[in-house]
Amino acid sequence: MTARAYCDCHVNIWNDEHVLPLYTQQLARVRAGAMAPKADADTLYAEMAHVEKAIVFALRYGDSIGIESDDETTAAAVAKYPDKFVGFAYVDPRRADCMDMLVHAIEDLKLKGVKFGPIYNGVSLADPRLVPVYEYLQKNNIPLTMHMGTTFARNAPVDFGRAIHVEPVALRYPDLVMVLAHMGHPWYGDCIAVSRKQPNVFCEISALSYRPWQYYNILIEAQEYKITDKIFFGTDFPFARVDESVDGLLTINDQLEGTKLPRVSQETMERIIWSNPFEHWWHGDNPLA
């Protein structure tokens, strides 16, 4: 049976020319012989055949991982496959033209949300350069997805990936929807605690299926804290595929055979697979309408 999901909320897009030599250098330290995967619009569309909608965004990780894409690539993909893709912009607050680029992406390119990787750009969530970004997003009902968790890149300050730093921003901007990618791994307890406390903070499970023991513990803790209604499905494609991500969730309890450990419930699995960000991440303004 082919794995299906309603929405993949975490899909990366780039063209071949956006991949720099640094990418293979960095990846070789943790995955010998790995090559840069394809992540152009046509590749994404083929991969998302069993997903009804996909949220796609470019990466500007040129000096940390070695991928430097752009919002025009995202907008072109949405224009080519409008029934499948919803585009998010990327913000890099180190750039002097950050706000100009953001306004252009939202108001001219008509992208519907924003992605930011504080660990990859080396900018903490408390950095004053982010204040105009937060203010603009809150004012314009634009959700903010953030990479939360560690990374293999050396030039990426690991503390900036901890979800505990999200709470002060969530409190200061209560109408800004914030989505914590990767459940903040390996500090998933921080992610779960902040999401439970703050109504405007959500989370998602992309790039977790290939670490099944950690993934299992994340889901059990989320069940115990009763936040499974705030968790959304994502893959982090091309770093993880749709079928393996769905199957990794549906078979998460297989590793427990012969034990009395608690199980991830069928309700939790189905709730995540069929989660619909378009009903939750915008305040009364569904971008698909």
TrEMBL record:
Taxonomy, top ranks, is: Bacteria, Pseudomonadati, Pseudomonadota, Alphaproteobacteria, Hyphomicrobiales
Membrane spanning stretches: none
Q: Which CDD domains is this protein grouped with?
A: metallo-dependent_hydrolases (cd01292)
The parts of the chain that form a coiled coil are none
Q: What is this protein called?
A: Amidohydrolase-related domain-containing protein
Report the domain of life of the source organism.
Answer: Bacteria
The answer, when asked if Plastid is one of the entry's keywords, is no
Q: Show the InterPro entries listed in the entry.
A: ACMSD (IPR032465), Amidohydro-rel (IPR006680), Metal_Hydrolase (IPR032466)
> What does the record give under GO molecular function?
carboxy-lyase activity; hydrolase activity
Q: Name one Pfam family in it.
A: Amidohydro_2
Question: Which keywords belong to this entry?
Answer: Lyase
Domain spans labelled Amidohydrolase-related: 7-277
